[in-house]
User: Fold this.
Amino acid sequence: MEINGVEIEDTFCEAFGAAFSRILVTAKNEKWVKIAANVTTGYGTSTIHCDAEAGVDILVSPDQTPDNRLGVVLMFFKNKTEEMSKVVMNRIGQCVFTCPTTACFDALEVSLNPEKEFEIKLGANLKFFGDGFQEKIESKFPFEAWAIPVMEGEFIVQSIAKVGKGIAGGNFLIIGKDQDSTLEAAQKAIEAVKDLPNVITPFPGGIVRSGSKVGSKYSFLNASTNEPLCPTLRGKIDNSQLREEDKCVYEIIFDGATEEAIKTAMKVGINAAVKIPGVNRISAGNYGGNLGKFQYNLHEILR
Assistant:
C-alpha cells in the first residue's frame, strides 16, 4: 500500500489495556487553562517510570462546561487499576488545586467496558484541606461538588471522578530521509489529531524519539533502546530494520478511551504525516503479537 507515494508497511501496532480517568479543568482564561494543563500532565510520558501516562485531550468551550468557563480535558492512564486514585489525587491536588482560578470536574464519557467503570474520591478527599470550612454544593450542578476556601476565594471540585478501561500504546512509526523532514511529518501528525476527543499523545510534543523494546542486556532494566530502528546502528547490527536511505525515525503513541478513538487517531495522523516530502515509509511498533491484546493493522485502518 502507498499513500501519496509513501509506503505503508503491512504490519500492526500492539497496544495494551489500561485504566484511565478523564478530568475537566476550567479556569478564568486560556492562559491559566494551559498552565494548569501543562503542569498537571508533566512527567507523564511512559509508565515505565512515570506514575501515569498523561496528556491533554481537548479544549472545551465555556458553553460546554459546568461553570461556563473555558476548560481543558486531561487524561491519565495507568496499567494498575488500584493505583488510579492515588495518581488522580496527587496530580489534581498538587497541580490543579494550587493553580490560580481553576475548578475541576469529572469528564469520563466512554470506555471499553462501561459496566466495569468505577468511582474514586476527588473532591470528597480534597475537601479535608478546608479544615472544616469546606461546603458541599448540592443544587448548582447535576452532581455533588465541594467549595474549598482558598486565599483567592474558593476551589470548586466535583466530589467523585470515574475510572474506566481504555487502551495504551497504539502507535505508528514515521521513517524518513533526515531529521528535519521526519520531525515535520511527526509535528503535522500531532497537529492533525489534537482536536480528536478521548485520545492523548503522552510523550513530549506527542513525539517519541527513544522508542524502546522489552528487556535489556542489563538485568536492572526492564526496557532499553529499540536498536533495529536506530539509524547510527544500521551498519553495526544484524537485525536493523532500516534501509540505507532511512536516517531518522519518530514514533507517535496514542492512549485512548476506546478502540475507535485509537484507530481514528492513527488514521488521521498517518494521513497527515505522509503529505510531507522526505517521509520514506510508515510502520508500527509491536512485540510479535505476544504481549498486547489490542492489535491494529495499518492497511486495515487506512482502508
Notes: The chain has a mean pLDDT of 97.
